[in-house]
Specification:
- Helices cover about 35% and strands about 15% of the residues.
- α2 links the parallel β4 and β5.
- The longest helix has 20 residues.
- The chain is globular, with a radius of gyration of 19 Å.
Length: about 350
Amino acid sequence: MTDFLAPARLGQLTLPHHLLMAPLTRNRAEADGTPTPLMAEYYAQRASAGLIIGEAATPNAVGQTYPDIAALHTDRHTDGWRKVTEAVRAAGGHMFLQLQHGGRVSHPATTGLTPVAPSAVPLPETIFTRQGHLPAPVPRAMTSDDIRATVADFAAAARRAVDAGFEGVEVHSANGHLLHQFLAGNTNRRTDAYGGPPERRVRFTVEVTEAVADAIGAGRTGVRISPGGTVNGIQEDDTAALYPALVHRLRDLGLAYLHVVRADPGDELYRRLRADWPGTLIGNPVLTDLTTEAVARAAREMLASGADLVALGRPYIANPDLVTRLRRGAPLNPLRERYLMYVGGADGYTDYPALVDR
């Protein structure tokens, strides 16, 4: 069995171990989406992760989901992210950046714009804005021109990410956001080349991924998926056919990795995707218990199931020195849920103690 603390590789990168920090939206950017010095401090604290996949950044204004999330479509955004990558690199770390368009998970109270989506199907939940939780609006169904422009925006954001010092980017096709909305039948009711059977619903994710790979290189491009996920009102009636169809279209692009959210080593579809995917697979395990023993066990099981690397989220939030704690068998800090999102500031963000702080 692979030791999760042993050195690993991801393309041209040599990593100190197999544990990556998953992308985690924390709402600490400026109002216009520019990363802040506090964000640079937060990520630098966690530079001992094998690789940090930075939180979702929107490639255009209409893609913004909530207040104070990061973006990457202006020079100011690029400059802000460059300060983050410089801080992480100075601390010995590496970073990719996740690119995410919210699609229908957005509100004019936040962006000043009508959300866009594959079809005019609203989010069946309220959405957080500066005015509190508001009913989700009906999004505008994207035209062919909208689709082409959005694909181009992802490619432009990827070029900005490399310019800002990231090693690469992760295309977010998971968790109920725009690309996932194209994949799922309940949010994609199109009758054109982007709707209908799974082979057509995967087209938008494939086109975005191809454009990003063309812009910065396939070896700098990863994709994140969440098969069977129901976040943000998603319903997949054909998960078992949908994701093999997507992997079939992506498998020969030479991508850096495929990142599977809530990967279950015992799940038949996960095992099939592992068998079908020829390159690096990152598994994001389900963690119900945030203890040293439970995290270590999940990492071992993930690698034993065929994953090449393991992405962890909440353990890295509460433990900037997570790897040191796992190596020593030391207890983990408890997670303070109330400070995860929407609150801003250092509380529950940069004030978690490392072992040396105790």
